[in-house]
Amino acid sequence: MSIVVRPATVYEDVATMVGPKNPASSVCFCLSYRIPSKENIALKGPQRGERVRRLIDEEGPIGVLAYDGDEVVGWAGVAPRTRTHFATFRKIPHVDDQDAWSVWCFRVRPGHRKKGIMHALVDGAVEFARDQGAPVLEGYPVDNGGEKVDLTMAYVGTRRLFEQAGFVKAADTGSVLSGFPRVLMRLEL
Questions:
Q1: Strands (E), the chain
Q2: Which of 41, 90, 156, 178 has the fewest CB atoms within 10 Å, i.e. the most exposed one?
Q3: Is residue 125 within 8 Å of 74, Cβ to Cβ?
Q4: pLDDT per residue over 93-149, tens digit each?
Q5: Cβ neighbours of residue 1 under 8 Å, at least 6 residues apart?
Q6: Sheet containing 101-108: which strands, arranged edge to edge?
């Protein structure tokens, strides 16, 4: 298996990774951290996918996608922190005045897990942010101390995953997910 990570510009591949199986469903599409809460709640069914399509049209890549050959197998949301909910989210502190970028959501398709795709996604997010001129990249994973994380809550990654990619803990946060505290991890680019 040879995993290649590329900027997320192909709507259909983004939809494969973060869109619901039922297009009429009003879930995910990785919008909760990207758009204002009221707008996120108001978007129903196909409107959610159309909003993602508009984000791609307006901003270009909205994250990175991992491919095994031609098959999309992974996703990571990556953007300037100022374009995310983290810009104003009080539970995740601002460490300094640098124009930080955030990587906040990971997804690996069933059947492709436990093959290093999360590591490839973190590395791809770093490369993407660096190529876009980001001075620093932040992640907000759970600090699970090696304990198992519920699969539905593992989307933020773990402290160990980020440490293995060279990130260092910069701050504690007031956020808790699945019973684990989240920490702010940073990598100077």
A1: 3-7, 63-68, 71-80, 101-108, 136-139, 168-177, 180-188
A2: 90
A3: no
A4: 999 999 999 999 999 998 898 899 999 999 999 999 999 999 999 999 999 998 998
A5: 68, 115
A6: 3-7, 63-68, 71-80, 101-108, 136-139, 180-188, 168-177
